[in-house]
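Dear colleagues,

For the upcoming journal club I promised to circulate an example of a predicted protein-ligand complex. I picked one with 2-phosphoglycolic acid because it came up in last month's discussion. The inputs are reproduced below in full, followed by the predicted structure.
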Amino acid sequence: MIKVIIADNSDLMSKKAAQIFAERIKAKPNVILGLATGGTPVKMYKELIRMHKQEGLDFSKVKTFNLDEYLGLAPTHDQSYRYFMNTNLFDHINIKKENTNVLNGLAKNADEECKRYEEMIKKAGGIDIQLLGIGGNGHIAFNEPGSAKNSRTRVVSLTERTIQDNARFFKDISEVPTKALSMGNGTILEAREIVLIADKTSKADAISKSIEGPQTVDVPASFLQSHSKCTFVVDKDAASKLLKKSYEYVNV
Ligand code: PGA
């Protein structure tokens, strides 16, 4: 069962999600976080930075694993997910850089890099709480429709829709990488807790299918229904196509 929290707007969605992560960090200072990139988590990361600066939220023992990285982009490329994480979060909190893990998009052997990443997650003891965004097509990380429930970290091809969705971050659509390294659905489902965030009406279809539709490879986020501790924190727009009215409303 997916727990759904509906916030009035995107700011409150971001605050609520940040609160959940802050609580887990306080409860377990050496918590292992799974982190995500994209437009959606930016305000949540800003709130975590504020909590660090104003309230002393301590990241000194926290370890992180990111979901994915573009194949072929250097960590210094301004659209790489390593660069995104540094500039949107890591550079502004007291996390040790060596405790932050992002797949290497320039690895000579990408398959080996994916294997290494899986082993690192295992060695660290597994992910305590995983943050997810969702694609308009229902993807989680870069597990596009058709990705098996038990898929592992691997090289994946991006769909045309995802390439178009992500083109806004690049000068030209032709610059958007067509391949990525991504944790698999199976890797994600092994996290002990999962929090998915979404805002905007462009996500409403994917949100309703994930929560209220059947579990299917056509909508990888629907596999989250089988997780024992998964919460969706969404704004009213992203929730606008949900049929059931029994979800928790929140005013943070
Ligand atoms: P977005 O991407 O946060 O930029 O909308 C989410 C995703 O594709 O997983």
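Two points we might discuss: Residues 138 and 222 are 8 Å apart (CA to CA). DSSP finds seven helices and eleven strands in the chain.

See you all on Thursday,
B. R.
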